[in-house]
Design brief:
Distance between the termini: 18 Å
Structural class: mainly alpha
Mean pLDDT: 77
Strand content: 5-15%
Number of helices: 3
């Protein structure tokens, strides 16, 4: 995930490379807990808190 021209962008993983390691792990956290943790631990003063949380919520929801 990175910023480009004041917009949050992300680069998808190459299929089959990182997916088994990242997406098969289950921590027991619900979506709200995970999004809250990510929002607090991804530092970027140029992003509004609500916008960052909304983006992260959609990103997490996409994989759940």
């Amino acid at each position: 995930m990175y910023l480009e021209k004041e917009k949050v962008r992300f680069t998808p993983f190459q299929p089959g490379v990182a997916e088994p390691l990242l997406f098969e792990y289950h921590s027991g956290w619900d979506q709200a807990h995970l999004v809250s943790w990510l929002e607090r631990n991804i530092y970027d003063e140029t992003l509004l808190t609500d916008e960052k949380a909304a983006f992260l919520n959609k990103a997490v929801d996409w994989r759940l």
